[in-house]
Amino acid sequence: SLLSGQADIALAVGAEKMVCEDKRKMFNAFTSAWDVQRSQWQMDIINRMAAVVDEQNQADPDYRPMAPNQESSQAFQAACELVFAGTAQPSGYTEPVLHNRRLAYKAEA
Questions:
Q1: 80-102 pLDDT, tens per residue?
Q2: Does residue 16 have a pLDDT over 70?
Q3: Which residues have a Cβ under 8 Å from the Cβ of 56 and sit 6 or more positions away?
Q4: Three-state secondary structure of the chain
Q5: Could you tell me which of 61, 94, 90 has the C-alpha nearest to residue 80?
Q6: Is the dihedral of CA 16, 22, 23, 25 positive or negative?
Q7: pLDDT, the chain, mean
């Protein structure tokens, strides 16, 4: 649990079982959770969250910061892809996105 004032930013994720034969129709139900009228505002939040993650990992010598290089950061792009294109993933799996981003990261090295 997270107490009030304990953090500047918190991400709450919930899950509910949905049973529907048409997987695309089922996952399209989640697209309504993204407020298209406030997409820039939401993107600004993701940008701020990247800076927070960077700060939390600053002691890790192997960590590569996301905030200053969002366009070229595979980690940042993976996070955005999971948020924006997550409903297009089969059964909501995150592995295809993460696998492809790992391959892209390794190709850059």
A1: 888 777 777 776 678 888 888 99
A2: no
A3: none
A4: CCCCCCCCCCCCCCCCCCCCCCHHHHHHHHHHHCCHHHHHHHHHHHHHHHHHHHHHCCCCCCCCCCHHHCCCCHHHHHHHHHHHHHHHCHHHCCHHHHHHHHHHHHHHC
A5: 94
A6: negative
A7: 79
